[in-house]
């Protein structure tokens, strides 16, 4: 908790989020918050936490991102020492005040601050921006596998594992099978599949079928 004579919170929905290089459009942002959620709220990404996601989610991490807002220093702060304090930033960032660097930080769970007494005036308006660094290139392979194609959008198969008994009932016929479910985007673009098991299981000459349901309807 910050202990100070006066505290002026800069949290809120009046921030702007921009992608360095322009790969994504500039959108309204909320702090505290995160880049992916702001992009989803602005419909620049498909829903992240249900359905098939968005294969561009990992692409977000390949760019630098800047949070910006204007703020006014209260007039009653004249003659006071003024510090700009952060509860946390994930992961590495540079902080700018009126276009000039005032702090750099690395570490998701560490608080940090900068003394801006000599850089601001009571009753004046200033521009604050926080530039978040993109992920290191050596991590791209792992982020793409976990957040990109193969984990949601673009995934051709969803897998369900289970023990299935051969219909012949022959001794020792119980095996561990991979059940493959192929779903088109028309079944997934408006939400998660519910009660999903398998469409078809092939085992030797035998063939078994099952049904999947989306929002209570068979698909």
UniProtKB/TrEMBL annotation:
GO terms for biological process: glycoprotein catabolic process. InterPro entries: Beta-mannosidase-like_N2, Beta-mannosidase_GH2, Galactose-bd-like_sf. Keywords: Glycosidase, Hydrolase. Residues 15-144 form the Beta-mannosidase-like galactose-binding domain. Gene3D superfamilies: Galactose-binding domain-like. Transmembrane segments: none annotated. It comes from the Bacteria. SUPFAM superfamilies: Galactose-binding domain-like. GO terms for molecular function: beta-mannosidase activity. This is Beta-mannosidase-like galactose-binding domain-containing protein. It comes from Cohnella rhizosphaerae.
């Amino acid at each position: 908790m910050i202990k100070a004579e006066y505290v002026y919170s800069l949290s809120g929905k009046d921030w702007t989020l921009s992608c360095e290089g322009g790969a994504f459009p500039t959108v309204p942002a909320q702090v505290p918050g995160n880049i992916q959620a702001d992009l989803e709220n602005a419909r620049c990404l498909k829903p992240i936490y249900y359905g098939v996601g968005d294969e561009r989610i990992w692409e977000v991490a390949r760019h630098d991102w800047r949070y910006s807002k204007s703020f006014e220093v209260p007039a009653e702060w004249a003659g006071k020492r003024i510090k700009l304090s952060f509860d946390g930033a994930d992961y590495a960032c540079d902080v700018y005040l009126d276009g000039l660097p005032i702090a750099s930080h690395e570490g998701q769970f560490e608080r940090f601050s900068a003394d801006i007494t000599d850089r601001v005036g009571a009753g004046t308006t200033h521009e604050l921006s926080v530039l978040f660094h993109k992920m290191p290139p050596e991590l791209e392979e792992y982020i793409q596998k976990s957040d990109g194609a193969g984990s949601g959008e673009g995934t051709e198969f969803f897998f369900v594992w289970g023990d299935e008994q051969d219909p012949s009932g022959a001794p020792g016929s119980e095996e561990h099978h991979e059940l493959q479910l192929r779903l088109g985007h028309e079944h997934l673009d408006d939400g998660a599949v519910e009660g999903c098991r398998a469409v078809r299981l092939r085992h030797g000459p035998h063939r078994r079928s099952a049904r999947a349901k989306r929002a209570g309807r068979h698909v």
